[in-house]
Amino acid sequence: MTDADDTLHVRAIDAFIAATGASDPEQRATLLSRALAADVVFWGPLGRGVGREAVEDFITEVVQGHPSGPCRMVRTTGVDAPEEWARFGWCYEDAAGRPILSGTDMVHVTPAGDIDEIVVFAGPLK
Q: Which SUPFAM superfamilies does UniProt cross-reference here (predicted)?
């Protein structure tokens, strides 16, 4: 992997994370269009979804609609990107910065720098 590849991965992942915190729907859609392929496959804790709209619905309902109030997703690790796959650690924090849930996501990044598959692993392995 080259540094340019790593930059593509980090840029896409960080745009995705920024989208999770965007309260303005237009801004969130813009960030998701920078990060995700239109036909992204999203494997989340609630099942499988396809397309940016499925990811946006997850963000609106689960991240921003959390019972603790709006939460913020934070990348907690570097991006480990062997070739076109990458993984990174994350944490959902409440408004006071207290961790609610953490996990690891694995993403597939196209040569153009778009994430076309996201697999969410929430919580620790037992």
A: NTF2-like (SSF54427)
